[in-house]
Amino acid sequence: MKTLQRSEIRLPQIEGDENLFSRKSLAKDFGGLMNPIVGIEHFELTRDELYKYGKDNVYVINYIFDRSAPCYIINASENKRLLIPGSLVFTSQDNRIIPSEFPNLKGKIVEGLQLVVKLPAKKDKLHFENLIIEKEQIPEINRGGVRVKVLSGQTGPITNTIQVINTLTFLHIFLDKGMEFEHLAPIKWSVTLMVMEGRMDFSTSEETIEIEEGMTLSMGNSDVEENLKFTAITPCEIIVVSGIPKFESNIPTETLYWNPMSF
Fold this sequence. Notes:
8-stranded antiparallel β-sheet; 23 strands; mainly beta
């Protein structure tokens, strides 16, 4: 029986100027354990930004934080959609993020997260459309000192019922000092976590490690369900992304179709 495998803890690549700050973690640095994620980028920007990927087997998720200014997302077909803070959009591989000019947002920052994700092996059967998940469509866990936005997928009894590609679970977790949250990872699923702010203990059945702001790690390949526990040493903000690696292609066909909401 295979137990949970974990990557090394890594710090992101940091780039930035007065218009764009970026913290980026790439799958190639995580020993294959980030799959189906290709890369995760935390960004803050005040200018137009165009993301290009040279492969045709990926799609892009842009999640705009609650604390962000609103922005436009323009996809590869030059269709434009206003994205309000707290929402996310699934698009094709080339897309542009443009800070909105209304209301008066001069000097405001668009902040969020971008995920680049591999398409499933059955991509030839995929009905690929753009999908917006609005803030009000995102269920939350909210109990004394613990807030979890279920951007897609499921954690515990809370499920986001909007169907997305790759059966992906995407969580944004906020913990007050001393508070705990647990998430059960399915058999064989990969899990990647990035600490956005704060310091915490992260526990699996094998170990407890302390990680802090900026650190990223990936894990997977377990033959059993894995209970993952997050304990805040200081107030924490954590991103967790979990999915079926692309080579695990025995996914029901219906999970390859989402509810499209075209731009």
